[in-house]
């Protein structure tokens, strides 16, 4: 069974979906730990589910903080590490230690709208569509190889919240597919 460590920074809605899919067998994997850069809803969700958790509050220098995060990830011996709503960039050396088994979900059709404000940026650009992507993490900002992506139309009455609400289910389906295929190839 594929062992997953998931890193989060917020409420953990993508984590909740992945946890449900792993528990009911739709995704053949098990989440062995959830880590974060701060106390957050995603950690509470993991604790309630009996999953090991860890917190490494962000601190400078980034390279040392990133190294501590990766040490904690590797202590759980994952086959795959998932950044799902994890709002911090890991330093290049840390990414290399987890590569190529480090993936990220992103609420845009990359390479369009990289970075932390993808949904807002798509709306500000007047785009008529955006999307969701799952990528292999590299040392850049949302520049790694794309594993899966789907277009999502932008409606004329969309605001940031409504658009993000429509992207999230697409992102979750893409992540589930990537994890399932990863498991089949390993």
UniProtKB/TrEMBL annotation:
It catalyses: N(1)-(5-phospho-beta-D-ribosyl)glycinamide + (6R)-10-formyltetrahydrofolate = N(2)-formyl-N(1)-(5-phospho-beta-D-ribosyl)glycinamide + (6S)-5,6,7,8-tetrahydrofolate + H(+). One of its GO terms (biological process) is 'de novo' IMP biosynthetic process. It holds the Pfam family Formyl_trans_N. The keyword Transferase applies. Pathway: Purine metabolism; IMP biosynthesis via de novo pathway; N(2)-formyl-N(1)-(5-phospho-D-ribosyl)glycinamide from N(1)-(5-phospho-D-ribosyl)glycinamide (10-formyl THF route): step 1/1. GO terms for cellular component: cytosol. SUPFAM superfamilies: Formyltransferase. InterPro entries: Formyl_transf_N (IPR002376), Formyl_transf_N_sf (IPR036477), GART (IPR004607), GART_AS (IPR001555). Its EC number is 2.1.2.2. The keyword Transferase applies. Residues 3-178 form the Formyl transferase N-terminal domain. One of its GO terms (molecular function) is phosphoribosylglycinamide formyltransferase activity. Keywords: Purine biosynthesis, Transferase. Belongs to the GART family. This is Phosphoribosylglycinamide formyltransferase. It comes from Agrococcus jejuensis. The lineage of its organism: Bacteria, Bacillati, Actinomycetota, Actinomycetes, Micrococcales.
